[in-house]
Amino acid sequence: MDDQIEKSRRKIKILIRFFIIGLILSGITAFPLEWELSMLNNLMVKYFKIDNPLHNWIQKVYHALKATNNQYPFLAYGTDWLAFAHIVIAIAFIGPLRDPVKNIWIIEFGMIACVLIIPLALIAGEIRQIPVYWRIIDCCFGAIGIIPLLICHREIKKLKN
């Protein structure tokens, strides 16, 4: 029985660390958006057919972001806060890393957030004129992110019994 408990604890820790790293990386990447989009645009020009919907979208977003940053750099402060929020949320997951049973509510909070990504992406994406394929990509963050959390939740429930 102790071996099974230890196996569950290891699995939980691995999955939570994976989730924390994902949150931190997605947060950090919100800081250099203009540079990232420039690199992505250049790669697409170099390796892919230029006239395709994805490249056209990347190029449009890059030019809009570059123009906005040139004229109104203070607007990028909003994505700085987005990055900060990802990092702070990642820190919250240290709770279940330390004591998964006591902090199962943080796992549940993460699962709820993953589910809520989908209506946000679909509704706000429509309002903000985001292409459907990009909204689907955004929805994937919730659909993929919930998987390790569901597994953690199941394993934590085993520890409670």
How many helices does DSSP assign?
Answer: 7
* Order of H and E elements: HHHHHHH
Number of separate domains: 1
Which ranges are low-confidence, i.e. pLDDT below 50, for 5 or more consecutive residues? none
Report on this model:
The protein is an all-alpha fold and 161 residues long. The protein has one domain. It contains seven helices and no strands. Helix 1 (2-28) packs antiparallel against helix 7 (132-160), helix 2 runs antiparallel to helix 3 (53-71) and helix 6 runs antiparallel to helix 7 (132-160).
Briefly characterize the structure.
This protein is mainly α. It has helices at residues 2-28, 33-47, 53-71, 77-92, 94-98, 104-127, 132-160.
Fold topology:
Layout: H1 2-28, H2 33-47, H3 53-71, H4 77-92, H5 94-98, H6 104-127, H7 132-160
Helix pairs in contact: 1-4, 1-7, 2-3, 6-7
What characteristics describe this protein?
161 residues; mainly alpha; 84% helix; elongated
